[in-house]
Batch of 2 targets.
Target 1
Amino acid sequence: MSLSKDQVQHIAMLARLQLSENEYAQSVEKLSKIVDFVDQLSQADTARVVPMAHPLDAAQRLRPDAVTETVERDHFQENAAAVSDGLYLVPKVIE
Amino acid sequence: MSANDRELHDRSMTELTAGLDSGEFTAVELTRSLLDRIARFGDQLNAFITVTADEALAAAERADKARATGDGGALNGLPIVHKDIFCTRGVKTTCGSRMLENFISPYDATVVAKLSNAGAVVLGKSNMDEFAMGSSNETSYYGPVKNPWDLSCSPGGSSGGSAAAVAARLAPAATGTDTGGSIRQPAALTGTVGIKPTYGRVSRYGMIAFASSLDQAGVITRTAEDAARMLAVMAGFDERDSTSIDQPVPDYVGGLGKSISGLRVGIVRQHFDAGLDPHCAKSIRESIAVLESQGAKAVEVDLPNLDLSVPTYYVVAPAECSSNLSRFDGVRFGHRADNADDLLDLYCRSRGEGFGDEVKRRIMTGTYVLSAGYYDAYYLKAQQVRHLIADDFKKAFANVDVIAGPTAPTPAFKLGDKIDDPITMYLNDIYTIGANLAGLPGMSVPCGFVDGLPVGLHLVGPHFAEETLLRCAHNYQQQTDWHDACPEDFK
């Protein structure tokens, strides 16, 4: 199945990815090939097959609700582009 | 050749430990000699993103002191390399991406902490496909790694830098990660040993996530014995990883010497179909004959849904990647675009600039298969087929203890040959992906050469059968010397 440029633009928007014109052309071609390739799955007979949830059929483990970590906010924020008073700064959201 | 006649860089971890214990050389001397080799060969191979020479020498000094007082751990003074997907406190951790070009990890991954606590000396961080998405190391923002056996060839990927470093004798061992073959395929293409343990066997805390139902940490070495030594330290329960399995770790090193007499080795009929290079097929058949000469019994088995494993993977892995990589938003860490108009513009441009082509392609594939109206047709369907594939393995393992076959369909391919066609590249992982989909342990062992390029024998076992794989590989390496071959330019 071939994807259209509109579809690829929609996908890129959902994924929050800005693409150049050239990248759009490439993506339409290559994503269409990938979708064609994975379309093989439609031929598999999966009637009454349960979707796999975990490779070892394990359930999610729970831990006691106890404080185990220490606050290292200043240390972690060293990797952020813009912080102030312990907060992360982003462009203005509300005018 | 006895260990004492070999150059330090050519010795295994077992041989190096003997040399350190006897006082033949110190950990500082050993570390210096390998750092010299990295300085000499590093650029040529492009195997490293970061070399941590100062930290390595300091760790080596500590190891020598610990040895003097008898306090050293299991890997005391042994140099290793970490794939740059593992977070290392105070050291740049890029994951092969521009997105994390300036990221200094604030903490150590559990694997990193465990190996350091055992006395290992970290020489640096190895190059890799961006976010581990690739089979050739060509998607790295830091340029492709070269294969030490032929510099015009790919070392495989995504753990290509780790594999090239071990093959070129820049380190005896390196960590890796494997989501669809990223330890085993580069091991095969560089003539090294690579093991991907059972899903959940090794902690993933601090290992940057790609596809969470498939990712597993492992190791690349030159001998199965060294792989056992590394895995013995790395494996085990970690409460910080919610997928970690709480099961005792067997004595991997102690189990190596056991016989493989009577071991049932499954030969998969579908493995020898048209896709496999006939010269590689010959090496694989000869290596199975070696196992038989040691008393193993070859049994034919079927994996009828083998062909569906690659398309299944290319739905499940991108879907999980699109979710995992949503954390890179230019706000808390990672690349941030300049002069954003608003928050949406900040997200879209930071991600557009920070990610490379293959990563964007996988995020978009994942976004598509998870989007409204397509979820059932792709994601749900793929998880059903995944069940069929896991059941095929379960049936096979009712009759055999281990499955043996090719790791990759061909020896190393030329850099540039497959990068423009994603499907051709994806099909390189056809023999390895099944183990990830079913959560099984898998291992590649050097088993021959085709036109001067290494070939790997792939061993897969039932869940938690690492001990069997290591024993089988060790036994094979006692009968063969493929792993002793060193690429000519790196002797």
Note: The longest strand of chain A covers residues 83-84.
Target 2
Amino acid sequence: MLPRPPQKLGVGINYHWDFQDLIRNNLNVIDYIEVSPDIFCEEIITENQRRFRLDKRKLNDALALGNLCPVVVHGLGLSIGSASGWNSDYLTVLDQYAQQQCFAWHSEHLGFTLVKNQDGSEDHAGLLLPMPFTQDALDLLCPRIQQLCIRYAVPFLLENTTYYLPALTDTYKNGREWDEIDFLNKIVTRTDCGLLLDLYNFYCNAVNFGFDPYSALVRLRLDRVIEIHVAGGIMHEDFLLDVHSSEVPDAVWELLEWILSKVPNLCAITYEVLEQALPLMGEEKIVAQLQRCKTLWNQYVEKSFESQVREKEFNTLEDNNNVAA
Amino acid sequence: MSLLEVQRSMVEFARGYQRESRKQVQLTQAESKWLDQLPNSPGLKVTQQTQQWWRITRLCSAAPLTVELIKRTGFDELLYDYIINEPVRSLFFAAELEQFANYLQQHSASTPTIKILAAFECAVKNAYQASVSNDAHASPVKTFQFTYDPIALFNALLTGAALPSHAQHYYLIVSPDLPHFWRVAPEVDYQALGLHRNH
């Protein structure tokens, strides 16, 4: 189980310095920001060594905004699933960031980008690749995840990703192959991590590999879902792509509305959008997406949370009355 | 097949240069089936293209002037050749820019102006980084000699206007101490810096 339940935050957006004005102007809709510390860094590569350098100017801008609303961390560069070792420089950056900014939880993508070759050189995939759904992958990931669950004394969440390649999978004794849901459930069963359920990513996989997202999601350990991502993308070569370039498709809104009553520990809904989409979409459309998230949040999560609090207060009052009697 | 071998295969497929992995390791039936599936899977092309798009996007952000000059002067092949043949080292802009600038310096099809512009953008990026990390020594003063009026050239590349014609020599100085990290310099300043060599 999770080390301690995080606070309910509401609706947020991924942070980029291009969004500074948008965020500051809409703090009535935006309850928190999701920050990727990687974006404050540049990577310096010399020979076969890589190291990060923090851009203090960009960092300070984000810290100033962090004084106005809560922050959650969403990492990009850890490469948590690399068999040849994760990117420990990312953790150094997160350590530095954690010294300057409190955050409610931190998260990473389930996948890998880096591999070491036989000659010791490092290869980069150029994009996040998915983990095979196998026992080997599980054995590699779980101890790392557990380390991350305790490292910052705040919960750690793992995010499901989009993939376009067929997965290498283990099989159960009855011959059924492990799928993404089995793999995520096995991870949360063996570790204390929560789930960052990216509904758009999951919907992409459902469209691209032809399965029903609803019947798949009911098999997921929904009690572990702490944060939900929604986003929009494009269709290319008959594949729905995860590019965060547009409005959330109707099918994902429907999935979100359907799932909100089934995720009792949900603390946040983040609308993810690329900074390059800002001039194309415009601030108004982006805010409209956030507003729609907020309406659903108020309708399902806030209402249910308030009734839970009221029920708890009532029970406490009743207990006190019984003691007094 | 170890997890490391599986991941090496996936990276090779994603980058489009798969080795003969199966000759080197013993495969289970599932691994063999998976490796057979990959080359013909419709998602492989999408994976490769996605990786290339992200890289083009990084280049456009990291070296907007150079990329625009390459396109405007009909040297698009340099971009494709770089993306296909140069390994991905990083998802970060500065590292990509450094690698791209080095590639252009060495490529015979690259023109002197493309080389100078890439080196200039790289130097500005380094000067900015040195400035924000208060480490001026990390990026010493650099000078560049253009055969275009640089202001007219940058304006044309950013606005889509026609490229200026070649003119006399122009000199630029890049330093972390300058307000925008660069300025056009009179020849006398350039000579005074004692760095009158072509970049």
Note: Chain A touches chain B through 50 residues (CB under 8 Å).
